[in-house]
Amino acid sequence: MQPPKSFAGRQIAVTGGCSGIGLAVTRTLVALGATVYVADISPRIPDELKGHGNVHITLLCDITDRIACQSFLASIPGRLDGLVNSAGTARWEGRVGTDEVFHRTMDINVTGTWNMATEALARMSTQKEIEASGIVSGSIRSVGKGSIVNVGSGASLRGVSGLAAYTASKHAVLGLTRSWARDFPQMRVNLVAPGATETPLVAATLVGAPVGDPSVDVGVAQVASIPKGRMAYATDIADAIVFFLSDESSFITGQCLPVNGGMV
């Protein structure tokens, strides 16, 4: 009998898999026996993924380009068991952001998620539904045709001062998740909403904020208010994402799971 959450024989696609949360997801899935296909805009493979036979990486993959998304998914042979939409962007906007930042944020966070997920949903729709044995002897799980996990944010659920475009984009990703879950009941489509997380993207966002910017005060206050007393590690978020990909979540779809150390 395989242990719970074994991904032996499963194939999962991960966008943004060369850094941050996406990298943590990739490493976790590989440790659980999955074959992982990574799409990333990065021009280089991170050291942590070099030499892994079960990791296949497409570099310089722009998720805002539908043809690039089609080509990436077409490179995955056989069954596509899951997709993690982890690629995203954020930057301090201030009280009045620029059109450039707004359009770029929406393009990556929303259009990129739309492109990759709609391509994956079309492919998964042609696949057979599968069943797997449950933990209790004799029990069966209907795993379905595949699982998609979108990475949202605490900003999917509330407004964030100084991050209007980012907040709008993450609200949109939650809306897509809930609609797709209804439109494609043979698949599972869920969203993980991380709170403040230690990633290169967060570090770059903080560095890019000017001294005295009110958004910095908001960010500092947010971290200080986390009951757990720290930001999340990328692996904390990866654990939640892997749960949604696993057989253990076989009857969960259209849901948003905040992973934020207790913030309400």
TrEMBL record:
CDD domains: SDR_c
Record keyword Oxidoreductase present: yes
Domain of life: Eukaryota
Classification via InterPro entries: NAD(P)-bd_dom_sf, Sc_DH/Rdtase_CS, SDR_fam
Sorted UniProt keywords: NADP, Oxidoreductase
PANTHER family according to UniProt: BENZIL REDUCTASE, CHAIN DEHYDROGENASE, PUTATIVE (AFU_ORTHOLOGUE AFUA_4G08710)-RELATED
Family according to the record: Belongs to the short-chain dehydrogenases/reductases (SDR) family.
Entry protein name: NAD(P)-binding protein
Annotated source species: Aspergillus pseudoustus
